[in-house]
Amino acid sequence: xxxxxxxxxxxVLKTGQSMxxxxxxxxxxxxxxWYRQDPGMGLRLIHYSVGEGTTAKGEVPDGYNVSRLKxxxxxxxxxxxxxxxxxxxFCASSKTGGDHTGELFFGEGSxxxxx
Amino acid sequence: xxxxxxTEGQVLPSEGDSLIVNCSYETxxxxxxxxxxxxxxxxxxLHLKAMKAxxxxxxxxxxxxxxxxxxxxxLEKDSVQESDSAVYFCALSDRSSASKIIFGSGTRLSIRP
Lengths: 115, 113
Hints:
Structural class of chain A: mainly beta
Shape of chain A: globular
Largest sheet of chain B: 6 strands, mixed
Number of helices of chain B: 0
Radius of gyration of chain A: 14 Å
Strand content of chain B: over 45%
Number of strands of chain A: 11
Distance between the termini of chain B: 41 Å
Low-confidence stretches of chain B: none
Number of strands of chain B: 12
Radius of gyration of chain B: 13 Å
Mean pLDDT of chain A: 92
Oligomer: heterodimer
Order of helices and strands of chain B: EEEEEEEEEEEE
Helix content of chain B: under 10%
Structural class of chain B: mainly beta
Largest sheet of chain A: 7 strands, mixed
Number of helices of chain A: 0
Distance between the termini of chain A: 35 Å
């Protein structure tokens, strides 16, 4: 009963390094999202996807890229990490359709530290 | 753009106290409204929801009324328990696009025994 799985769970990077966070969901959901969570700022949407091969910008997309080559996977990339990208990253997925209720299913989070 | 405002960063009631956690929203569309709860070390999970004006969401003794006239969705409970301690996020989903879920900044609920 996996749901939404994020890898890695923890990562430490040096400024300027690159990395990719992987999100996988086994619920056959159309929509997938990447959020970042910072103290006092809640959850802010980075990028999202409404289906395989599509992506769109959220509230805070700068410095990140995403890809949705397969329906079950949503990758978040940092090309040149900066200390301001130190955060906890959450992936989420949701259903689509005429009665889309907006309920998100979240992973357990990936804690990224950029030195 | 759409926004959700939670005015309290933390609330510290005692066990058995009543609770109100404030949430107000701003949107030009017709949102669905949600409260998500996050326990330590976990991702957020849906706590309750209301799909249209005057709907009331309920779960585990918590309630929230979708009030369009005041653009609010306050979370209430008559008597809190220590197990209710968590971070609570108010959120909205724009039903016209149904793609973006916008969250408030969160309220940490810490129940004093």
